[in-house]
Amino acid sequence: MTSLELMTEEVQVWVASLEVNRRRYDELARLLPADERERAASLTAVASRRFVVARGILRQLLSGFTGTPPEKLEFSYGRSGKPGLVDRDNIHFNVSHSAELGLFAFAPDRPVGVDVENERPVRRLLDVAQRFMSEDELRALADTPPEERNSAFLKSWVIREACLKAEGKGVWDGKPGKLTHKLFAPRPNYIAAVAGPGSDWRLYTCAMKD
Q1: What's the total number of domains in the chain?
Q2: By the 8 A CB rule, do 90 and 165 touch?
Q3: In which residue ranges of the chain is pLDDT below 50?
Q4: What is the CATH number of the domain that holds 116?
Q5: Which residues contact 128 (CB under 8 A, 6 or more apart)?
Q6: Global pTM?
Q7: What whole-number distance in Å separates Cα of residue 171 and Cα of residue 75?
Q8: Domain that holds residue 38
């Protein structure tokens, strides 16, 4: 991949399809080390394929930013599984995928979190909301007209997930702190959010060729 550049006070989100042909899949699979191949092998067929593609794309993008060959990059993991680069504190990143779409967020000067959801009917929506959302979020959701409730839930969900991921937390870690977030639609029928500390950053989205 050609050289890529990150500017301070900037968050880049790269948007990529996880549906690739066999040649592209094999190219990406060759970039994964043994532990990532073992993780892929433990998943279902569909999840395994998407993990391989997403991790391969992540490695290629990180290689573009750092100049390190993608197969040579080493990851460390936080307590909730958020990856970071070993011996590098000048690039922060996060990944999310839903259905066949993957999002890859990068920032040079702050932690970043991203989440994407395919816009689909959520089963037992209010039950799910009661398990994870704050009282204020629940009240707002209950006051939303029924025909708009599904969309409102997904927007709240991606914001919450992006903020938690920026803090290195998991879905069970309670309410996130006060971070700046930005909502956007990476493709039709998808909703996404990216989050990070501070309010001085700009969001740039970049589309990878399918």
Answers
A1: 1
A2: no
A3: none
A4: 3.90.470.20
A5: 122, 153
A6: 0.93
A7: 22
A8: 10-207
